[in-house]
């Protein structure tokens, strides 16, 4: 199947997914479940990765900017900017594309090959909307919180690394995290996070929903889902950066 | 009653169903039999609307399913129950939740009424003390029975079963066959069963459609099978020595 066929098929898929849910009450309870599954269960990995990345960013900045002409608070400033602008949105997005994306593709793919999706269709239920819309809505809702958490934990990681290795005085690091703050960068990154949340859930759902065959094909669909959603996140990152930071 | 009128279905250049016409009556267990690859699964999936037919009509009690729009088809689907080959129970739901699911989606029952209906359906298929078990925790036979309970939860007019006793031991297979036949009579449903199990044919085949290479090759009852001159049907039904001997003895 070529790219244009995929785009057409994905558009038709989205029309199915974005149609009105069968029962509002059931839909909201599914969203809560998905928030737990996709968001709350990802807090651990987001915290661990953000903490260490923040620490590494601070240390690398400190070691590369050892120059008496450069103020030490630049370490705190760079850590904050790196976390806000790129790491907490894009890198966390890529990590979640692996964790959440493979989970979604294999879950929906397994439902397809074991005829559970057919069972929903026979009951007169729009299976695409029933299964996938709650995932998309949940991710769009919870991922901005993960982003904010990642920023804070990353800066904390940088601060701890700087303090524990005595590379930068604590007061300088804290001053750097407050220096030259541009609130719009948060808006820019939140927009990116929401777009990435859509990609992380919709693309793997698409690959899982249309899987044909058995366990082997489910595995292949899962791999394709992770690879393609990661590529799309990087592409969307470039496009959104050009549009929003122009 | 479900009536098929000159049903045709192709996948690309491959013609799978050719001018299939038949009437499946209510209150009877109607069987579709045929060799693997003969087109019986495609026929069943076309009847329930999982495959779009190329031409021909499917009538559900004089309602032309093929001519209906999406909303109309959806309404008829609420009158259908389906038992899939593997059960197709929802992995993330336990037994009770699986049976309850169609009620949550489509009924206006109170919680108490739903609980009563779930208990009734599970009792009807002889499932006890398994309400909180998940599909992976129960046997294949139990999965099939839970699938039947889910299929009858909304009191459907039409019941479809795709190889309901495949992978089951002979005793459990007969239990499932008899259960489907009892339910069909009890609720006066139009039941269509897709099978290649000859025990099922001899046990519950009140009306049998034999498909060969995508064509309707024969239709009749289980008693008529013994006297048929249809070579393809004879080759299929009496392939084993056991059934050859049964035929000789009759």
UniProtKB/TrEMBL annotation, chain A:
Coiled coil: none annotated. It holds the Pfam family MlaE. It comes from the Bacteria. The chain crosses the membrane at residues 38-63, 83-102, 136-164, 184-204, 225-245. Keywords: Membrane, Transmembrane, Transmembrane helix. This is ABC transporter permease. The keyword Transmembrane helix applies. It comes from Marinifilum caeruleilacunae. The keyword Transport does not apply.
Automatic annotation (TrEMBL), chain B:
Pfam families: ABC_tran. It comes from the Bacteria. GO terms for molecular function: ATP binding. Residues 2-238 form the ABC transporter domain. Keywords: ATP-binding, Nucleotide-binding, Transport. PANTHER family: INTERMEMBRANE PHOSPHOLIPID TRANSPORT SYSTEM ATP-BINDING PROTEIN MLAF (PTHR43023:SF6), PROTEIN TRIGALACTOSYLDIACYLGLYCEROL 3, CHLOROPLASTIC (PTHR43023). This is ATP-binding cassette domain-containing protein.
């Amino acid at each position: 199947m070529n790219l244009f066929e995929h785009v057409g098929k994905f558009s038709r898929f989205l029309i199915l997914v974005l149609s009105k849910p069968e029962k509002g009450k059931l839909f909201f309870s599914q969203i809560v479940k998905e928030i737990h599954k996709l968001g709350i269960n990802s807090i651990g990995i987001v915290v661990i990765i953000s903490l260490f990345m923040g620490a590494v960013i601070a240390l690398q900045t400190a070691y590369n900017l050892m120059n008496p002409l450069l103020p030490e608070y630049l370490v705190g400033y760079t850590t904050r900017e790196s976390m806000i602008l790129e790491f907490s949105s894009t890198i966390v997005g890529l990590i979640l594309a692996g964790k959440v994306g493979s989970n979604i593709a294999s879950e929906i793919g397994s439902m397809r090959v074991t005829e559970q999706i057919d069972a929903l269709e026979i009951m007169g239920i729009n299976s695409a909307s029933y299964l996938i819309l709650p995932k998309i809505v949940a991710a769009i809702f919870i991922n901005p919180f993960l982003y904010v958490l990642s920023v804070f934990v990353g800066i904390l990681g940088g601060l701890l690394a700087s303090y524990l290795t005595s590379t930068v005085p604590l007061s300088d690091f804290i001053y750097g995290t407050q220096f030259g703050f541009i609130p719009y960068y948060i808006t820019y990154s939140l927009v990116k996070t929401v777009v990435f949340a859509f990609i992380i859930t919709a693309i793997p759902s698409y690959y899982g929903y249309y899987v044909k065959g058995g366990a082997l094909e489910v595995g292949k669909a899962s791999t394709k889902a992770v690879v393609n959603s990661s590529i799309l996140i990087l592409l969307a990152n470039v496009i959104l950066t050009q549009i929003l930071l122009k | 009653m479900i009536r098929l009128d000159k049903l045709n279905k192709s996948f690309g250049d491959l013609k799978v169903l050719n001018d299939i016409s038949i009437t499946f009556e209510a209150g009877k267990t109607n069987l579709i039999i045929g060799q693997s690859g003969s087109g019986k699964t495609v026929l069943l999936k076309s009847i329930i609307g999982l495959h779009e037919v190329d031409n021909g009509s499917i009538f559900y009690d004089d309602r032309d399913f093929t001519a209906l729009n999406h909303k109309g088809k959806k309404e008829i689907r609420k009158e259908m129950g389906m038992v899939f080959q593997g059960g197709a129970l929802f992995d993330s739901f336990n037994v009770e939740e699986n049976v309850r699911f169609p009620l949550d989606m489509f009924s206006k029952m109170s919680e108490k009424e739903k609980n009563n209906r779930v208990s009734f359906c599970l009792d009807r298929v002889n499932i006890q003390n398994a309400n909180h078990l998940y599909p992976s925790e129960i046997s294949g036979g139990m999965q099939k029975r839970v699938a039947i309970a889910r299929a009858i939860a909304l009191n459907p007019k039409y019941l479809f079963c795709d190889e309901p006793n495949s992978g089951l031991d002979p005793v459990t297979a007969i239990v499932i066959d008899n259960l489907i036949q009892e339910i069909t009579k009890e609720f006066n449903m139009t039941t269509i069963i897709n099978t290649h199990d000859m025990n099922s044919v001899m046990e519950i085949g009140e009306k049998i459609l034999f498909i060969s290479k995508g064509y309707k090759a024969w239709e009749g009852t289980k008693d008529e099978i013994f006297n048929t001159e249809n070579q393809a049907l004879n080759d299929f039904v009496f392939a084993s020595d056991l059934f050859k001997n049964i035929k000789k003895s009759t």
